[in-house]
Amino acid sequence: MRVRHNHALKQGKRPTVSTDTTLAADRRIWRDELPFDEALLCHRIATLQADIAARGLTGLLLFDPENMFWLTGYQTIGYFTFQAMLLPREGLPVLVTRVVNRDLALALPTIGTAVAIFDTDDPITVLADALPTGGRIGLETTSRYLSVHDHRQLVASAAVAFEDCNGLIEMRRRTKGPEAIERMRRAATAVEAGMAAALAAVKPGARDNDVAAALYHGSIAAGSEYIGHPPMVVSGPRSALCFALWRRRTIARGDVVLIEGAGCVDRYHAMMARTAVVGPPTDEQKASAEALTALLETAVATIRPGETAGEIDRRCREGLEKLGLAKYFKSRTAYGIGIGFPPNWAEGHIYAIRPDDETVLEENMTFHVIPTMFREDFGMAISDSVRVSATGCEVLTRYPRDLVVVD
């Protein structure tokens, strides 16, 4: 296959493509599969190709579904099987993927061709055969979708040199454009609806499954797609266990119910967490909730362009330290958010607000500010998704932060 006219990409137009007719699909059939404007994606391709050329590379080989999506709009729930995307220095990306994903990929005008992996094939052999001969190709060696075994086999079998290019796309994903922010606002609206439904389902005699079902139904009915990992719904003493999920437990008076959910629109996420207590809260529970709300409000008041992540984290922890509660806050103050595929909904590997982090915040970075407290017999979380605005912080998820008391 030959892909021509890369200059058209730089003008935001779709290049002319010559492709093997045995692999081609009618690109008009599923035009709605393209989540963003074609010119935007073509611009991203051209920008990344300029980065590739500046490094003297022949191309860039991608394994993370988040990066494939950002570049081309391609998405599939078949991310659990091997696939790779080659962005050549000139022309459209080439996707090497399981045969069942082929038509979905070729429905997109941003993918030049798809090399099919049949279930009887060795995927790495198919990929190696699809790569050009000679030159150097950048690799995402930190990708969870490239195993040590596959990396070794690829290096041994491909007729091309490789070099690490981790973070090349992530550098471009750090700040969000208007199209991404619009999706995240819609995702925030969806998770707000889910949270309202979930909190309404909290009552004595209900199961934690009922709360989780309400959270899912509310957010999906409000427009959410599937999210990057399960929401967190836990009750009673199990609320003290971070990353535990619902397990058919019956909610009783005195229980704390911790709920963390997300909405997703075109793979862009927004998250939030709220906490409920069935019956009058104890003094410890009230103090914990007030401290978490204060931490969240400090973060919102402090986040702005030019601040360092570490300094924001330090200011947020000060209040907990004065109250003697810092030992119960065991994680970073916030993590980056945006595109997510299972097993993760976050972009915390790109940037985060955490101790001693020298990252300087920029306008249109987006975060999930996640104050949590996991004590001996209960846990709480009160969190919101935010955007760094030109002068401060825009809160994307707008829902009352009070500890919800269920009579």
UniProtKB/TrEMBL annotation:
PANTHER family assigned to the protein according to its UniProt record, in alphabetical order: AMINOPEPTIDASE (PTHR46112), AMINOPEPTIDASE YPDF (PTHR46112:SF3)
Domain of life according to the entry: Bacteria
Classification via SUPFAM superfamilies: Creatinase/aminopeptidase (SSF55920), Creatinase/prolidase N-terminal domain (SSF53092)
Every Creatinase N-terminal domain range: 44-173
A family per Pfam: Peptidase_M24
Ranges where the Peptidase M24 domain occurs: 182-389
Protein name: Xaa-Pro dipeptidase
Taxonomic classification: Bacteria, Pseudomonadati, Pseudomonadota, Alphaproteobacteria, Hyphomicrobiales
InterPro entries (alphabetical): Creatin/AminoP/Spt16_N (IPR029149), Creatinase/aminopeptidase-like (IPR036005), Creatinase_N (IPR000587), Pept_M24 (IPR000994), Peptidase_M24B (IPR050659)
